[in-house]
Design goal:
single chain, mainly alpha, 8 helices, 0% strand, globular, disordered C terminus
């Protein structure tokens, strides 16, 4: 049960960072762009919440709801891809006005889902690093790069033996650290975009 509850930590960190980034960068997004971004965030967050609930219900003896476990990879992959696409599209917008070990669903081959996750993550972090560079926040770039590397590492760990409690703890610790770095980077961007008298709003 503690492991299941710990699974919620990176989910909460990811959601908090993503909402903060959305509030700041939303100025540069069109309405369809925002819908794409937030829909992606909801998918990724829901995927993590349901996966944690699956473990929690199982540990508490409530039941084993396999669909909660099975949905994780598909929804997370699609969510990352949508979020990354939305952030890349936002780079074209106006600075001011926003112009511009488990079973998975067999909807797509596993290799395609992995490619979608990696592509989405790469797009997300590439766009965020571009924003950080615009604000001359090198520390944010470092945190985003660190988070991206750890996220890729989490992807590798996900392919290991998750029947092992030790592997679960290691993987979720890496994931939590990745999302914490993501949140810190988002906070640096937020402060850099709003804490200056210069016209540098994200």
């Amino acid at each position: 049960m503690p492991m299941a509850l710990f699974d919620l930590v990176p989910v909460v960190l990811f959601f908090a960072a993503s909402m903060l980034i959305g509030a700041d960068i939303g100025k540069r997004m069109t309405v369809p762009n925002k819908v794409l971004y937030y829909f992606g965030i909801v998918l990724v967050t829901a995927a993590g919440v349901f996966k944690a609930l699956y473990k929690l219900f199982y540990a508490a003896g409530v039941g084993e709801y396999e669909w909660m476990n099975a949905q994780f990879f598909t929804n997370q992959s699609v969510g990352f891809l949508l979020t990354g696409a939305a952030l890349l599209l936002s780079l074209k917008g106006s600075k001011k006005n926003g112009d511009g070990g488990s079973r998975h669903y067999a909807l797509l081959p596993t290799g395609v889902l992995v490619g979608m996750s990696v592509t989405g993550l790469a797009a997300m972090y590439a766009a965020l690093c571009k924003y950080a560079a615009e604000l001359k926040k090198k520390s944010a770039v470092l945190f985003f790069v660190f988070s991206f590397i750890l996220s890729l590492g989490m992807g590798y760990l996900s392919s290991r033996d998750f029947d092992s409690a030790k592997m679960n703890w290691i993987a979720q610790s890496v994931n939590s650290l990745a999302q914490l770095a993501y949140l810190i980077g988002a906070l640096i961007l937020h402060k850099g975009g709003h804490g200056s008298s210069r016209d540098t709003d994200i």
